[in-house]
Design a protein that fits this description.
Length: about 180
């Protein structure tokens, strides 16, 4: 039997109502923690369920549970709402005379290339290490949330992440000849 999110993605007209019935309490409790009043929470819950409906086809049961996927959408939508509410113009200082104003762009491009390279090295990890790192990096989950999702102790989660990142760094260092990979 397909999950609720898979049914939403397939256009099942009853699946959205089932999703709201099943996860409405969870989404409401998350929204109340991020908002100042119940009116804002109600608006946020509506936005969250619209985002769930729009993103249901992206759900991958092999990566995370339905509850985790919905929780991450809720958290991200709420963080977006907070950022939008607190948005103020950012003043960027003018570069000093003689400085390359495009320097920051080069750093961003280089970091993006490094992230892409690191992603290719995830195959050196055990399945448990890889899952813990993916839930942390791709889904933004805390160690506690990963422990709850995977049903393993929080100390083990921390160990999987720490050792997994060390293995990725070692694999990267081997490819790059030991240069340019710093422990962070």
């Amino acid at each position: 039997m397909d999950s609720i999110l898979q049914r939403i993605a397939q256009g099942d007209p009853t699946a959205v109502a089932t999703c709201i019935d099943t996860y409405g309490g969870l989404v409401w409790s998350i929204a109340r923690r991020f908002t100042d009043n119940s009116g804002d929470a109600e608006d946020a819950v509506q936005d969250i369920f619209i985002a769930i409906w729009k993103n249901a086809a992206k759900f991958e049961p092999a990566i995370a549970s339905e509850k985790t996927f919905i929780t991450m959408i809720a958290r991200r939508r709420l963080i977006d709402r907070l950022r939008k509410a607190n948005r103020r113009p950012q003043l960027t200082p003018m570069p000093e005379e003689g400085q390359d104003p495009s320097g920051d762009q080069h750093v961003r491009i280089e970091r993006g290339a490094e992230a892409s390279l690191a992603t290719r090295h995830l195959d050196v990890l055990s399945p448990a290490q890889r899952r813990a790192i993916e839930l942390s990096v791709y889904y933004g989950m805390s160690h506690r949330e990963i422990a709850e999702e995977t049903n393993i102790p929080i100390g083990t989660v921390k160990s999987h992440i720490f050792r997994g990142l060390a293995l990725v760094r070692k694999s990267l260092a081997a490819e790059m000849g030991g240069a340019g990979v710093a422990a962070t």
